[in-house]
Design brief:
Blueprint (H helix, E strand, L loop, with lengths): L1 H11 L3 H6 L1 H21 L16 H8 L1 H32 L6 H13 L2 H11 L6 H7 L16 H26 L3 H9 L4 H12 L1 H16 L3 H6 L11 H11 L3 H33 L1
Helix pairs in contact: 3-15, 4-15, 5-9, 5-12, 6-9, 7-9, 9-12, 12-15, 14-15
């Protein structure tokens, strides 16, 4: 007991310089993130318009929010975009990583090519894919120029499938990051596991499915959190490709917040929408943090 009590002060002052250096970052996070989040939540219960004011109206802003057709379309689009992005980016990223993990020739070149889109801003990506998907001089125009006059591919101009046109650009940009994370996880697998699987005659797909993927659980969870947090905040792609059109068919929550606060000058409505987005992010972050840190504490 005495030894344990004597060690506590030593542990407190261990890496003291690093702890002191982290104080400004911690204070900034508390003031900017936590303070700003609390401020947003509080003012979401007011009728603030051009300027914030503490005139509380209860849940009126949230009732108006969920009765808005524009917000409902934004939530539906976010759900479609989010589910498809999570599934496709994880699957495609893992497959590409598994292929690169076979020690193929020019691996560095392929890795650079696949990761390059992630280095571009979402605005640039959106503009590039707006051109590619343009019916006059994009894919549709090119195919029709080859003689298939009846070919139609204009997702950005069709309100029923416009969100899938945005999805194409999002997958193209984000899959490279997922691939790199997965590749790092695969490179961390002990080579003896692959040798044992080959000796036992286990097919490669079973080795991946029942041995490798379960061992990469932390990588999958971390990748899932990174991708999911980016999905909730998607804004640039929509603005660059469609500006929310045709009509309001490609609205997303982040754009709804911007329009409410800066175009409609309705801060209360924008704060309410921001709070709902914060709740969406927290439903991803909190379970992950509890699962990861709780597991480490139990193992420790």
């Amino acid at each position: 007991m005495a030894d344990a009590a004597a060690r506590r002060p030593n542990q407190l002052f261990r890496n003291l310089n690093a702890k002191i250096a982290s104080i400004p970052m911690i204070l900034t996070a508390l003031v900017v993130f936590v303070g700003g989040s609390i401020w947003t939540v509080v003012y979401s219960f007011t009728n603030s318009r051009l300027l914030p004011r503490l005139n509380f109206v209860g849940l009126d802003q949230y009732e108006r929010l969920w009765s808005s057709n524009k917000w409902q379309i934004a939530i539906e689009n976010l759900f479609i975009y989010g589910v498809c992005t999570l599934i496709l980016s994880m699957v495609i990223g893992f497959v590409l990583a598994a292929l690169l993990d076979q020690k193929i020739r020019f691996e560095d070149t392929f890795r650079t090519i696949f990761l390059y889109p992630f280095a571009l801003s979402f605005i640039v990506t959106g503009l590039v894919w707006q051109w590619i998907l343009n019916p006059d001089f994009g894919i549709q125009g090119f195919v029709r120029g080859l003689g298939w006059e009846s070919f139609t591919f204009d997702p950005l101009y069709n309100q029923d499938i416009v969100i899938y046109g945005i999805l194409i650009a999002g997958i193209w940009q984000g899959t490279g990051l997922v691939m790199c994370l997965m590749l790092a996880g695969l490179r961390g697998i002990d080579e003896d596991i692959w040798k044992a699987a080959r000796v036992d005659g286990i097919p490669m797909w079973k080795t991946y499915l029942f041995i490798v993927i379960p061992m990469m659980r932390p990588v999958f969870v971390t990748t899932l959190v990174i991708v999911a947090s980016g999905i909730v905040r998607v804004y640039d792609l929509v603005v660059a490709q469609t500006s929310g059109g045709p009509g309001i068919a490609s609205e997303v929550p982040a754009k709804y917040v911007y329009d409410a606060m800066f175009l409609s000058q309705n801060l209360g409505q924008g704060f309410a929408a921001s709070t709902m987005m914060l709740l969406a992010v927290m439903t991803v972050i909190v379970p992950w943090a509890y699962f990861e840190f709780g597991r480490r504490r139990r193992n420790g």
